[in-house]
Write a structure and sequence with these properties.
By secondary structure, this protein is of the alpha+beta class. It contains 5 helices and 5 strands; from the N terminus they run ααααββββαβ. It starts with a helix and ends in a 12-residue tail after the last strand. Bound molecules: zinc ion.
Length: about 150
């Protein structure tokens, strides 16, 4: 977990003023490892900071996305989820449990980069790759194992 000084620095280096609300919201998002929706973030924020509104939380996380501090992932149903992990990784979305799980696979990323190279896709520089796999857990009581 990151401390407040680190988050302050993160905001400043993204060109954002480290306001109290931004610090509160970012530190909460960074603790949430489940790709929360804005409502889930708001649910956590209001526990200790009831004066911060849902609209403020929404506006703030969108500002973080615009400034490259968070990424946004849409579920199969089109709900937006927020992700503090900015490295190249893919997601598996489970329609039964609405969970969004991270997966890391360099081999898959290389395959995709080679695929585009071999297909001679011109005039495109790939900046990042985010593969999303939609599925349903066969047994919702068990975790999906990614080997
Ligand atoms: Zn993720």
């Amino acid at each position: 977990m990151r401390d407040l000084a680190e988050i302050q620095e993160m905001l400043r280096s993204a060109g954002l003023k480290a306001t109290h609300q931004r610090l509160v919201i970012m530190s909460i998002v960074m603790k949430m490892t489940n790709h929360p929706s804005v409502d889930q973030i708001y649910g956590e924020v209001r526990k200790d900071h009831p004066s911060i509104s849902l609209a403020t939380v929404y506006k703030t996380v969108e500002t973080f996305v615009e400034n490259g501090l968070l990424s946004k992932v849409a579920t199969r149903e089109g709900q937006m989820r927020y992700d503090p992990r900015l490295d190249n990784h893919g997601h598996i979305y489970c329609g039964n449990t609405k969970e969004l799980l991270d997966f890391y696979d360099d081999e898959l990323n290389e395959l995709i980069i080679d695929f585009f190279k071999n297909r001679k896709v011109n005039n495109l520089k790939i900046k990042n790759i985010t593969v999303r796999i939609n599925g349903d857990k066969i047994d919702p009581s068990k975790d999906v194992i990614i080997k």
